[in-house]
Amino acid sequence: MAPTTLQPGALAGVRVVEMGQLIAGPFAGKTLGEFGAEVIKIEAPGAGDPLRNWRMIKDGTSVWWQVQSRNKKSVALDLRQPQGQDLARQLLRKADVLIENFRPGTLEGWGMSPEALHAINPGLVILRISGYGQTGPYRDLPGFGVVGEAMGGLRHLTGEPGRVPVRVGVSIGDTLAALHGTIGVLTALYHRKVNGGQGQVIDVALHEAVFNVMESLVPEYSAFGAVRESAGSALPGIAPSNAYPCADGWVLVAGNGDSIFKRLMQAIGREDLGQAPDLANNAGRVARVQEIDAAIGDWTRSRSITEVLDVLAQARVPAGRVYTAKDICEDPHYRARDMILQQATRDGYTVEVPGVVPKLSATPGTVRSSAPHLGDDTDAVLASMGLNAAQIAQLRSQGVIQ
């Protein structure tokens, strides 16, 4: 079941207004919500966040939605109407954080520029996630995560040499932007606490979030003119670290530490390589990486994945199988660390979902509420802002809320 705790979350008392949709903005809201923040998600009346209908649907709603929108309240509010914009400003007047991932200029078009919002709430922390950032010559271009992955340098490195660049398999560009945005929010909240209560704007570009994790890509080009290329499953410049064939699949082996390499070679019966003076360090192993990979592959090829992992575990060599969703759900380690949770939905069924990361000892993240139906919390949130039943009913009749 979802983890619970008697202690308040680390972010209890922090009110977040989420105006984003799909992945990047909402993932940041999800993360803050799991650690105790109150997250009020504003959705457009009608269909709401398109993520409600992405990928596989159960009982009319995406099961992805059940993860992305847990611990959130849904307010169906039309931000294209002046009355809707006024209501949003009232809500933001008492908020701590605003998350948005619209194209630059959208907030300004609704009369909610950072300057305008800080005039009514100087302490507001505003997270803005966009394809190319709020400034620069590309700011007005439409940008999704896949484009950010390409511009950030990641797509060029994925796949087999000489073949088409491939996707990582998930929307990694959006998620990296969300995590960078979350770091920015927490940093800005701390700054606000110790520096007089002033909020600020956090500007995250999708491609910059990807670029930030590209390791030595640019320094190597700057220093040596080297353009790193795709290398399939290998880790260029680090040896041995690759995927190797087994009788029933593939196994990943990372034997690239000096002492680890010697233990690996002993385990596979190639002590001649383990004791070779020129292979005692990484530079020497890189020069002979094809020979080393062939030796490991010759050993793994006739053995099962389980046998290979057992032998390498005894030798204290990092190795692992390539997990599928089935493997993850059946793995006892995932279960032992509460990384697979049973989460009840508002549609009446229970679904297994990922747990909360990272794990805090005193204030662990929790799942306090299931993902909302569109507009589930509209009346309650508006009532908390001081609107009475007649005012709420009039707004609903005008199509401002749902």
CATH fold title of the largest domain: Rossmann fold
Share of residues in strands: 5-15%
Mean pLDDT across residues = 96
Question: What is the CATH architecture annotation of the largest domain?
Answer: 3-Layer(aba) Sandwich
Described by strand count, sense and barrel closure, the largest sheet is:
6 strands, parallel
Radius of gyration: 25 Å
Number of strands: 13
Unreliable runs: 1-5
Structural class: alpha/beta
What does this protein look like?
It is a single chain. With 402 residues, the protein is of the alpha/beta class. The chain folds into two domains: 15-213 and 334-397, Rossmann fold (3-Layer(aba) Sandwich); 241-323, formyl-coa transferase, domain 3 (2-Layer Sandwich). It has 18 helices and 13 strands. The chain has helices spanning 24-34, 63-68, 82-93, 106-109, 114-120, 145-151, 172-194, 206-211, 217-224, 258-267, 271-274, 282-287, 289-300, 305-314, 325-330, 332-336, 378-384, 389-397, and strands spanning 15-18, 38-43, 57-58, 61-62, 72-76, 97-100, 125-130, 201-205, 241-246, 249-254, 319-321, 340-344, 350-354. Strands 5-2-1-6-7-8 form a six-stranded parallel β-sheet, sandwiched between helices. It has a three-stranded antiparallel β-sheet with strand order 9-10-11, covered by helices on one side. Strand 12 (340-344) and strand 13 form a beta hairpin. The relative contact order is 0.15. Mean pLDDT is 96; it is low at 1-5. Pfam families: CoA_transf_3. Keywords: Transferase.
Write the layout of secondary structure elements.
Blueprint (H helix, E strand, L loop, with lengths): L14 E4 L5 H11 L3 E6 L13 E2 L2 E2 H6 L3 E5 L5 H12 L3 E4 L5 H4 L4 H7 L4 E6 L14 H7 L20 H23 L6 E5 H6 L5 H8 L16 E6 L2 E6 L3 H10 L3 H4 L7 H6 L1 H12 L4 H10 L4 E3 L3 H6 L1 H5 L3 E5 L5 E5 L23 H7 L4 H9 L5
Parallel strand pairs: 1-2, 1-6, 2-5, 6-7, 7-8
Antiparallel strand pairs: 3-4, 9-10, 10-11, 12-13
Keywords: Transferase
Organism: Comamonas aquatica DA1877
GO molecular function, one term: CoA-transferase activity
